[in-house]
Amino acid sequence: MNKNIIKIVIFGILCLLLMGFKCETRYVEVPVLGTADQTIQIDEAGTAFSETGMVDATEVVNDIIESSAYEEVLGIHLQGITYTIIDNESNPGTTITGTVQVSATGAPGTEQDLMTLSGVNLASVEGTEQSPSLDSDGVLQIDQSISPFFHGDNRIYFHVTGNASSSPIKFKIKIKVAVVVLGKVEVDVPMM
Amino acid sequence: MQKKSLFLLTILLCMIFTSSLVFAQIEENLERYTEGNAVGYIKPLVNGIGANMNRGWYHSAKIPKNGIRLRIGLVAMIAPFMDKDKTFEAETEGTFTPQQTAEASTVVGSEKSVSVNGTGGTTYIFSGGLDMNAIPFAAPQITVGAIMGTEATLRLFNSSWLNMGGDSEMGDISLFGIGVRHNINQYIPLCPVDIAAGVFYQKISVGGDLLKFTTLHMGVQASKGLGPILLYGGIGLDNSNAKLEYEYNGEFGKYGVSMDVDGDNGVLMTVGLGFNFLILHLNADASFGIRTVYSAGLNFGI
After folding, report:
1. Which residues on A lie below 8 Å from B138 (Cβ)?
2. Which CATH number belongs to the domain containing residue B61 in this structure?
3. Torsion of CA B71, B76, B164, B25, to 10 degrees
4. Is there a contact between A133 and B128 if contact means CB atoms under 8 Å apart?
């Protein structure tokens, strides 16, 4: 048989084996989690306390967007908020009751309720991350604060107010925000 | 012809390189999941690749008692995914409250993410998939023998040979497989068909420690030649396992996750058709078990 015919047959068979393999582009929705936190110091001679703090998630969000190589960012959402009591130097058995409010700007009068602290025994929860129930108004406020469609930054202002069962009162409250960035990633997928 | 050969080689390299990028994305998607969800997310791919790797080892049961057997070729396989492979019951992780389950995409499912709402309207999002209907696989292989009716088949490939391992995002892809088959009909006088039995082991590594597949197939094959046409079939037992190592990115930081995922392990049956023309051997077959896999091969030799 002519050598060229054999080569053509071989080439044809190889084509049959491999031609079915191709690549198709997919745009996969990939969520990536990031966290940012802020520690607020409470140090009062009396029983009432009121302090503010700011969590800046801008760097976290920007890092996620850069490292994930998103084609398009679909949204940034609040996945959860936790708080941890640390460095408690209050009297033994001291409990606190109060609220944590949240604001997009930190301006007075713009705060929304986020969570309630009800009879929290500082010593018993010290060092343990707490996952409280959250108020929808506060969550919406945070979602808007971190959304790329509303602001150029991702800052969230917290206002912690309340009363303690005894004085003086001295502890820190570490508030951690977990945000999830959802974006589309382009992937070439082998298909047949 | 050289240009055409280069084109084919380019397609093959594209497949391998593309696969490495796919695995890079899979690793990123897995960062969202710890072991429970990760198993559900990745399992269909493990099943598909495992089933593919176990195919294409044979295209005839005829093994000479003694003599020269040398065949070099390429085998290609494809395992279609079933509807049930597209989703899994995922569970929210970390401190998200209240804990919930949702029907989320597996790695081969829809590109769309799935989200659930928690306390106060917080949002938990499960990753989308790669929307794959099937997973292809290809491997070069060489068969040598025969001594006392026994032949050995070797599969070997390493992406570093093509100087792409160092530049690839995922590093090396390496494949090693070995199989041994023995002529059975030599012990059965006047047997109307050729019969062989064999065992095949294979290992493939992707991206160093990310994904390590091991497969084992053992079975019995029979074939009957009708001129240049060859009918063949077999029945065997598949076993596949994948070991995954990746970094989980959760609320408490990043930490390593290592887990084992078993593939579809069970009995399956193969039926195929071959065509022999001098030193050219072409075959195609289908295997039916927990999932169906199609395979085709091109071999040269005697």
Report:
1. 17-18, 21
2. 2.40.160.20
3. -160
4. no
